[in-house]
Amino acid sequence: MNKDTINYILLVAITLVVAIILSLVLRKLLSVFITKYAKKLKTDPTNFSFIKNSVGFLIYTSAIIFIFYKIPYLKSIGTALFAGAGIIAIVVGFASQKAFSNIISGIFILIFKPFRISDIIEFKDGQKGVVEEITLRHTLIKDYENRRIIIPNSVISEETIINSNIQDERIRKHVEFSISYDSNIDHAIHIIRDEAQKHPLLIDNRSKEEIAKNEPCVIIRVISLSDFSVDLKAYIWSNGNDNAFILKCDLLKSIKQRFDKEGIEIPFPYRTIVYKKDLENDNQPAK
Predict the structure, then answer these.
(1) What pLDDT was estimated at residue 242?
(2) Are 134 and 118 in contact (CB under 8 A)?
(3) What is residue 181's predicted lDDT score, i.e. its pLDDT?
(4) What is the distance between the alpha carbons of residues 155 and 143, in angstroms, rounded to a whole number?
(5) Distance between CA atoms of 82 and 89, rounded to whole angstroms?
(6) CA distance 67 to 71
(7) DSSP state, residue 202
């Protein structure tokens, strides 16, 4: 092994080590900046998260280009590759079509911001979670079972999503109850409203005009007269998706307990079971 070969090997090794160290240091610094200073500067952390995940790609690409430029043998290979760039471009373009699509989609997510880091988003198939990270290739979402959903950027860009945090975090939750026809509707409405207004997670979303008119904080309407029940719907407001979910669960429990205590019946189907033996006995002629 001659001296030039040893020098080239050292050049490659040093370049790769520097690239790895530089990538780790810059990603660490950007992570610290995102967590500590994004809120102070009132800057969207999504922008910095995307840049953080782009740093490694840019550094390693630059390192490879530097190695090709500095080593004559690799430089000649590079020249030959560029000479056949037409065929290579077709092959590479076909093979990396999805990769470039994900990168472009990630840039569009960064620019147009349909969702950001920490937003709660839901897909039409029912998947729901908190956006944890947006990379060059994919978006990482933590669902409510603490699992990670990894979705390519090109896929998520074409999805219809529900963003619970964009523009306004307040959520109006609909809580429905069914009572029997024998129950007192006004008393049932009073119980629902009283339990809702006592809950600490409820927010008063009334306008000044509605408050002046003394309209109730919790609107409750009769929405249906079903075959076996009178159906009521309560419109309750809370701050954020998680609080709204807790509020609904707590109200289902406390209102059911109040209904039981104060004589409001929640109907359930009754079934009459007739035994075939009894029918046969009824059909026997009297002796």
Answers:
(1) 86
(2) no
(3) 92
(4) 18
(5) 9
(6) 6
(7) B
